Amino acid sequence: MPSNYQVSVSLPYLDKLVHFIMFGTWTFFYGLVRFLKGNIKLLGIFIWGSLFGLTIEFLQYLLPVNRSPELLDFVADLSGTVVAVLVLFVLAKNVPEFKVNASQ
């Protein structure tokens, strides 16, 4: 959404929370898809989630979309990615159906 759009809710850092949730959710579901394909390499999932967040922020800098890149947005993206990978790791270690060489 354009950066000049005003949200009526006045929670501090709401946009960072949204970044955290979006990237955590995206990374988690990306990891599930990799699992279904028999390839749940957590380092690769983390790298793709991180690169995706970095790319989004870089594109905001390059493209005329009335958006501005922010370091804290990327930190929130990265944090959501880390939490999702940790959840996938816990699932891989504790759920029998997830026992697919998850430590690679």
What would your notes on this structure say?
- With 104 residues, the protein is an all-alpha fold.
- It has one domain (14-98).
- Helix content is 65%, strand content 0%.
- It contains three helices and no strands.
- The chain has helices at residues 14-36, 42-62, 71-94.
- α1 (14-36) packs across α2 (42-62).
- The radius of gyration is 16 Å and the shape is elongated.
- The model has no long low-confidence stretch (mean pLDDT 84).
* Low-confidence runs of at least 5 consecutive residues: none
Give the amount of beta strand, in percent. under 5%
Quaternary structure classification: single chain
Q: Supply the number of helical segments.
A: 3
H/E series: HHH
What is the residue-mean pLDDT, rounded to a whole number? Answer: 84
SS elements, strand count:
0
Which word captures the global form? Answer: elongated
How far is the N terminus from the C terminus? 37 Å
**Overall structural domain count:** 1
Using the CA coordinates, give the radius of gyration: 16 Å
Characteristics:
104 residues, mainly alpha, 3 helices
Précis, in short:
This protein has 104 residues and is mainly α. It is 65% helix and 0% strand. It has one domain (14-98).
Q: In terms of topology, how is this protein built?
A:
Layout: H1 14-36, H2 42-62, H3 71-94
Helix pairs in contact: 1-2, 1-3, 2-3
